[in-house]
Automatic annotation (TrEMBL):
It comes from Pseudomonas laurylsulfativorans. It comes from the Bacteria. This is Antibiotic biosynthesis monooxygenase.
């Protein structure tokens, strides 16, 4: 498995996560199209937030980055949030 963590901080991050919370059904439907998706978590930290995507392989994680980027460009262009800090790598342990 392979995971990608996207952390949004700074200008526009709070507004971005407020909008994403309002549109969570749309985000759910969009992310479910990612091949090999194992899990997706969206965490609101109050001043921004983090998304955690786990896929069966790196190709799925790469697809999740593309889908997320396209969704944000299409739905939040008026917010002007800073680009996310992206952390990714192979999953060593996952407990369900």
């Amino acid at each position: 498995m392979y995971a990608v963590i996207r952390t949004y901080l700074g200008a526009g991050a709070k507004q971005l996560f407020e909008l994403m919370e309002e549109r969570k059904a749309d985000i759910d439907a969009t992310l479910r199209t990612v091949p090999g998706l194992v899990s997706y978590t969206l965490l609101n930290t109050g001043d921004g937030g983090t998304s955690i995507t786990v896929c069966t392989d790196k190709a799925g994680s790469d697809a999740s980055l593309k889908v997320a980027r396209e969704w944000i460009q299409k739905n939040t262009s008026h917010i002007h949030a800073n680009p996310p800090i992206v952390t990714e790598g192979p999953v060593i342990v996952q407990i369900n």
